[in-house]
């Protein structure tokens, strides 16, 4: 059986799009005769990320990284995140001449710049350095792939996402709240732009599902909204199904897995016409994309739920996993760089490692 080792700094118990994507991809890949294992923060000491006490970053060491990779004996290596684990796995692969692939999940530059004075251009430069040796930089949407190529990234390929329609599907659920119900699901943090949703004058009820550093402040500022905290599995699926419109105010998400979950539940989407929702929805009649988010919400109320379900049925994890496996295994040998790569910790890598951490992934 083909064995792919995925290195990721984002892992359970985190709740975000990276973790959900990797988990579902690995589960589905087994039906394709492929074993996917993970090198995660579970193998190392961790510390709470500043500003995100519920998210923890690993403190990996080069020797332990080497032992874990050697013990796994993978046929292919994929680096999913640009954090401490990703950095050391990248260095190991460079030293030993192992080809690897990477993926671009998070708009790291925007997230870091929202929390620090570091210019976005510096972060994009560091990201280009990180992904430069990758034989396939996997991007979730055509627009993101085009942007990465424009910014100087090489070997950019598409890897779209899927949705679990056995979990997320229409069902008769009543939240016993004034209708219509306008729902948002995701991390409650500044980069999600939730105030653009919560500021809207809308009929019915605004519901926010998720947790994060901005939750307490938003609950205090918007007492009329209903904050349900984090929800999982069937409970989450029932909340989706009870909503009338899914509101996605983020302007920075690279994909927005929650969009497919909402659509599979029969819930139309209201969003800004930006990369994530525009690439997922396009011109299909399952959502309303408008710079006036309130107008988008009201337009979405008129969209048939059956159209949303039919659209989501086209996005399966089987297809997503097959594309990932093809990219991850279609690599060519590279010569080892030996001790040169082992000491490759120049100015650009030090700058990258010193940057304030951004949230490792998005829902």
Brief write-up:
The protein has 363 residues and is α/β, with parallel strands linked by helices. It has 2 domains: 2-162 and 319-354, Rossmann fold (3-Layer(aba) Sandwich), CATH 3.40.50; 181-312, Glycogen Phosphorylase B (Rossmann fold).
Strand and helix map with partners:
Blueprint: E1 2-7, H1 17-29, E2 34-39, E3 46-49, E4 52-58, H2 62-72, E5 76-79, H3 84-96, E6 100-104, H4 108-113, H5 120-131, E7 137-139, H6 142-150, E8 156-158, E9 181-185, H7 194-198, E10 205-209, H8 215-221, E11 226-229, H9 233-242, E12 245-248, H10 257-264, E13 269-271, H11 275-281, E14 287-289, H12 293-300, H13 305-312, H14 317-329, H15 338-342, H16 347-354
Parallel strand pairs: 1-2, 1-5, 5-6, 6-7, 7-8, 9-10, 9-12, 10-11, 12-13, 13-14
Antiparallel strand pairs: 3-4
Helix pairs in contact: 1-14, 2-3, 5-16, 10-13
Architecture overview:
By secondary structure, the protein is of the alpha/beta class. It folds into 2 domains: 197 residues, Rossmann fold (3-Layer(aba) Sandwich); 132 residues, 3-Layer(aba) Sandwich (Rossmann fold), CATH 3.40.50.2000. The protein is built from 16 helices and 14 strands. Strand 1, helix 1 and strand 2 form a beta-alpha-beta unit. The relative contact order is 0.17.
